[in-house]
Write the structure tokens for this entry.
Amino acid sequence: AGVADAEDSEGCGLAELEALARGCRAAAAHAGAPPDGARFHPHLTLARLGRSRDVLRWVRVLDTYSGPPWPVDEVALVASHLRDGQGGRPRHEVLACFPLGDG
């Protein structure tokens, strides 16, 4: 599901999210982790399929969904271990969390 450019009462929106992504990439590169070069696409992964299926109906249904905004107060550095979890699924490991804002 894509992220819309709806600003909150403090003026935070898509531009701030993109700036945060640039900062995270720069910090990772500075720490020695080369960026993958892919363009930043803010999104929320709703599902992953193990095999090819016709999901056009679900894409159309979810395309009209507009959920409520929620605050983001930290960035988590996550390692994805593909096929390492239960049933051969990916396993995700939170390596570190970085608080955002003044708090």
Summary: The CA atoms of residues 9 and 66 lie 18 Å apart.
